[in-house]
Amino acid sequence: MFQVFLNNQASSILLAAIIGLTSLTIPGCQSKTANIPIIPTTQAIEAMTDFKLAFMPTSINDSLRQADGWSRQDAGRLAMKSFEVPSGLDHPKIIVSLRLRSAGDPWDKSGAVLLMSNNWSEAILADSSNNPGILLDAASGFNPPIELLRFITPFGVGHYSQKIGADEYRPVYIPKWENEVLWQNDVSHLWDSMKDSITLGVFIDTWSGEGFEINLGLEFIAQAELRNPQPVREVLSLVNTTKLHSEQHPFDDFATRPLDFAFQLPVTARNATLHYIATGHGGHSAGDEFVRCEHILTLDNDTIAQFTPWRDDCASFRRFNPSSGVWTERTYWRGDSIDERIASSDYSRSGWCPGSDVPALELKLGNLEEGEHQFTIDIPTAQPYTDSEMNFWNVAAYLTWDGPQEL
Length: 407
Hints:
Layout: H1 8-19, E1 23-25, E2 33-35, E3 42-53, E4 71-73, E5 78-84, E6 93-102, E7 110-116, H2 120-125, E8 146-152, E9 181-186, E10 197-204, E11 212-221, E12 233-240, E13 259-265, E14 269-281, E15 295-299, E16 302-307, E17 326-333, E18 336-343, E19 361-368, E20 371-378, E21 392-402
Antiparallel strand pairs: 1-2, 3-11, 4-5, 5-10, 6-9, 6-11, 7-8, 7-10, 12-21, 13-20, 14-19, 14-21, 15-16, 15-20, 17-18
């Protein structure tokens, strides 16, 4: 059967694969070597398939593992499960992909795919501080979750896309309402922290019993072998202020003081990078969601970043927001005063849009010396959290750096 299509080159490739050789010379390409991977080119973790994540306080017990293998926290708003990491790979490209559609929740909600420690929930219950589970705690070994992907759900994508009357709200420049939204993020720099298994968490700040349907996967894509091995990339999670656990308290102190804390580096961190994610919330018209707030990041009394998280392209996500509120605003066109239709999802916001992901800001820090360091996050114009004006900032930060080189 093979004689029908095998030529000499194909026969050589087949023979090399059979006897387990890892490379061969391609005829006609002198001094060029092609790697033949013994393992599949791409391996994957199919974490969630049509998974429903919703707020269900009467039917879900926190921490108990369900039949699907996922345990829930905070009445179902956070789901956690451990997975084996694909083996036989050397620093693959890692892509996290999340497909989401509303199962009935009409609102825009913050969410995240998280890399979590196995004892995360127990550590929070044992933490007696005012804000448990927010900061790195070297004494107890607690590490805040690392965000593989932060996202904001759009208004009603999927469930409301085909509703009767949905087209009445569809702008003429949108051919159709989308049925789902897809986000992807490259997290290859976290490979060395994944070890043999990882615990994934998926969180959405939903208060709806209908919630969302999710498909989540991680692809591990083998890369061409390098002549010089890549250094091990160390990871240290510093802070995550998002409320994920029922026993956590929302962190709302930015209006009164900077968030200031110390951390230890066990060795000199070569080529260090700070990964920083920030989104402002507070849905009233003058809330932190809609007001520009400058962030000042300080490391060891040196300002390393001073910027304002802001997105002014939110109208480009209109096709994902069929249940967004719509009204008119007065504007001018060709000298005439007219009423222009605008949706809530169109307005600019503090670092996000309904339907967008939120890429991390990456700050190159050079080499950081071994020992104690002081990190400060200051949002001077952040507004206080009240019962009627629920202003808060979800910020997260972690460090990566090159470990010691092997001789």
